[in-house]
Design brief:
With 91 residues, this protein is of the alpha+beta class. The protein has a single domain, classed as Alpha-Beta Plaits (2-Layer Sandwich), CATH 3.30.70. The chain has 2 helices and 5 strands; from the N terminus they run βαββαββ. A 5-stranded mixed β-sheet has the order 4-1-3-2-5, with helices on one face. A hairpin with a 5-residue loop joins strand 2 and strand 3. Helix 1 packs antiparallel against helix 2. The longest helix is centred in the middle third of the chain and has 14 residues. The radius of gyration is 12 Å and the shape is globular.
Length: 91
């Protein structure tokens, strides 16, 4: 299996009910990344992204730039792992 760069990101702030997931999906189309974005019960949004390191980092930076007015805190973790996603989707 091919290993990819994987990032798990949690966004806190006013991130639900503002089009955060839809905007993230649109941004994902600009990059060669796969993954998912989901609202969590605790009010955060979770973003999972995989691909090459440069594309994943650029994607996450673009999400942060476009939605900065809603984000109060960002928590990121990363690892190398086999690819688990085939596309990018809202969950």
């Amino acid at each position: 299996m091919i290993e990819v760069h994987y990032e798990n990101v949690y966004f806190s702030g006013s991130v639900q009910g503002v089009g955060f997931r839809y905007t993230t999906l649109q941004v994902a189309k600009e990059f060669e990344v796969t993954g998912a974005v989901a609202n969590l019960a605790d009010g955060r949004v979770q973003l999972e992204a995989e691909g090459n390191r440069k594309a994943v980092n650029a994607f996450i930076s673009t999400v942060e730039e476009r939605l900065h007015g809603y984000i109060r805190k960002v928590e990121r973790s990363s690892e190398k792992r086999p690819a688990r996603f085939s596309d990018f989707r809202i969950q």
